[in-house]
C-alpha cells in the first residue's frame, strides 16, 4: 500500500469537504498472456497489482456531486439526474459513466464527494481506467447500500467504458482489478466468468514492467476496429465468438477474408490456446515454456494483430537478444504502454540499465521501469 497517497487523499478530502471519507484501493493489473482474447469470449491470465487508484468518497448534503482528480488537479461538479458524456472528458467520463449505469439499473444513489489519486500511469496498459471505474462503483455500492455483488459491479464498470468512454473493452481489466488475489494470477474464462487461481512463483526471475511512455492515443478507434473484425469473422463462421473457432474452420473461409483479417482472427485463435498452455506451464513450473509463449504472443500482437509500435517491439527485441529475459511481450490494448518481462534476478539491474540507455539513444526519450507484486482486488482501506 502506498501510505503517502492514502494520507494525501485522506487529508485533501478532509480539507476540501470537512468530513471523513470512506477509503478504497482499486488496483491496476498485469496480464501474463491472453491479449485481445477477452472480447472473443476466450481465456486471459491476469492478476491485480500493488499499484492502482486510491479513492476517498462520502455522501454530501450539497445538491450536486463533486469529483476531484488529485493527479491532474481537475474537478467536475454534476447533478445526478443530469449527466452525459463530456466531449473533451478523460477521467471524468469513467466516473460519470458508472453513475449513468447505476441509474439505468434503477439504483438509488444520493449526492457524493469523491477525490482520487493513482500510482499507475494512465495509458500505460496497466488498466488505470478499470481501477478508477471499480473504485467508484465499489464506493457507491458501499455508501448507498446498493447490494451489488462484485460480479455485477465489474459489468457496470465495463458498460461505463463502452457507453461513456466509447471503448468496447472486454471484461479482463475490470475482473482482474476487482477479484485479484495476493500472489496469484487468474486464468479467467471470459465466457463463463469463472477464474482458476494459479499461485505465481517466478523462481529466479523478476517480474518487471517497462513503460515505453508512449500513450496509446490512437488506440480507442483501433481497438474497436479489431473487435469489429473479430465479430465479423465469427459471424461468417456462424459461431457466437472466435473462442469457438479453430485454425481448421478459419481456413474454410480464408478465401472470403482479406489477408489482414485472416491473420487477425488467426492470432486470436492461437493466443487463446497460448493462454491456456501458459497456465499449465506455470502449474508445472516450466518457465522456459511460459517465456517462449510470451515471446510468441508478442510476435502475434505485432505482426498479425498489429497493435504494437516501434518502441514496444524494440523493448521486446532487446529482451529476446539479451539471453537474460526468459519471456517478454507488450501488455494490454497496445499501441504504446508497457512490456511485461521475466528477467533473471542476478542480471536484472544490468539489463535494465543497458536497455534504458539504448532506448533513450534510439527514441530520444526515456522509458520507465516498474516492479510490481500480485495483490488483492478492490477493497476498503481500514
Ligand atoms: C484493454 C481492454 F480494456 C481489455 O478488455 C483487453 O481487451 C485488453 O485491452 C487487451 O487484451 O486493456
TrEMBL record:
GO terms for cellular component: cytosol. Its EC number is 2.7.1.6. Keywords: ATP-binding, Carbohydrate metabolism, Cytoplasm, Galactose metabolism, Kinase, Magnesium, Metal-binding, Nucleotide-binding, Transferase. The keyword Kinase applies. Residues 93-181 form the GHMP kinase N-terminal domain. Pfam families: GalKase_gal_bdg, GHMP_kinases_C, GHMP_kinases_N. InterPro entries: Galactokinase (IPR000705), Galactokinase_CS (IPR019741), GalKase_N (IPR019539), GHMP_kinase_C_dom (IPR013750), GHMP_kinase_C_sf (IPR036554), GHMP_kinase_N_dom (IPR006204), GHMP_knse_ATP-bd_CS (IPR006203), Mevalonate/galactokinase (IPR006206). Residues 11-59 form the Galactokinase N-terminal domain. Residues 281-347 form the GHMP kinase C-terminal domain. One of its GO terms (molecular function) is galactokinase activity. One of its GO terms (biological process) is galactose metabolic process. It comes from the Bacteria. PANTHER family: GALACTOKINASE-RELATED, MEVALONATE KINASE/GALACTOKINASE. Belongs to the GHMP kinase family. GalK subfamily. NCBIfam families: gal_kin. This is Galactokinase. The lineage of its organism: Bacteria, Pseudomonadati, Bacteroidota, Flavobacteriia, Flavobacteriales. The gene is galK.
Amino acid at each position: 500500500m502506498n501510505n503517502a497517497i492514502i494520507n494525501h487523499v485522506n487529508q485533501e478530502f478532509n480539507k476540501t469537504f470537512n468530513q471523513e471519507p470512506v477509503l478504497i484501493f482499486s488496483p491496476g493489473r498485469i496480464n501474463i498472456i491472453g491479449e485481445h482474447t477477452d472480447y472473443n469470449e476466450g481465456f486471459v491470465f491476469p492478476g491485480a497489482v500493488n499499484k492502482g487508484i486510491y479513492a476517498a468518497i462520502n455522501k454530501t448534503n450539497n445538491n450536486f456531486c463533486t469529483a476531484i482528480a488529485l493527479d491532474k488537479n481537475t474537478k467536475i461538479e454534476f447533478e445526478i439526474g443530469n449527466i452525459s458524456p463530456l466531449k473533451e472528458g478523460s477521467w471524468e467520463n469513467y466516473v460519470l459513466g458508472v453513475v449513468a449505469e447505476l441509474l439505468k439499473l434503477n439504483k438509488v444513489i444520493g449526492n457524493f464527494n469523491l477525490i482520487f489519486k493513482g500510482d499507475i500511469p494512465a495509458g500505460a496498459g496497466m488498466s488505470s481506467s478499470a481501477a478508477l471505474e471499480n473504485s467508484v462503483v465499489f464506493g457507491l455500492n458501499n455508501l448507498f447500500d446498493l447490494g451489488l455483488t462484485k460480479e455485477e459491479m465489474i459489468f457496470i464498470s465495463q458498460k461505463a467504458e463502452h457507453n461513456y468512454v466509447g471503448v468496447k473493452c472486454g471484461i479482463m481489466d475490470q475482473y482482474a482489478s476487482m477479484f485479484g488475489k495476493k500472489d496469484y494470477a487468474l486464468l479467467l474464462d471470459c465466457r463463463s466468468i469463472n477464474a482458476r487461481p494459479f499461485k505465481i512463483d517466478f523462481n529466479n526471475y523478476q517480474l518487471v514492467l517497462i513503460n515505453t511512455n508512449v500513450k496509446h492515443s490512437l488506440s480507442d478507434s483501433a481497438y474497436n476496429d479489431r473487435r469489429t473484425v473479430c465479430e465479423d469473422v465469427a459471424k461468417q463462421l456462424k459461431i457466437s465468438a472466435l473462442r469457438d473457432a479453430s485454425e481448421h474452420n478459419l481456413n474454410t473461409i480464408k478465401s472470403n477474408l482479406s489477408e489482414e483479417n485472416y491473420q487477425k482472427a488467426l492470432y486470436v485463435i492461437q493466443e487463446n490456446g497460448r493462454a491456456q498452455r501458459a497456465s499449465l506451464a506455470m502449474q508445472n513450473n516450466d518457465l522456459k515454456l511460459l517465456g517462449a509463449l510470451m515471446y510468441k504472443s508478442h510476435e502475434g500482437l505485432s505482426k498479425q494483430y498489429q497493435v504494437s509500435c516501434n518502441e514496444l517491439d524494440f523493448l521486446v527485441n532487446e529482451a529476446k537478444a539479451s539471453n537474460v529475459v526468459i519471456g517478454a511481450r507488450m501488455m494490454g490494448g497496445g499501441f504504446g504502454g508497457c512490456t511485461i518481462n521475466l528477467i533473471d534476478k542476478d542480471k536484472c539491474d544490468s539489463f535494465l540499465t543497458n536497455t534504458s540507455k539504448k532506448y533513450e539513444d534510439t527514441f530520444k526519450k526515456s522509458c520507465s521501469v516498474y516492479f510490481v507484486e500480485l495483490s488483492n482486488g478492490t477493497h476498503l482501506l481500514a
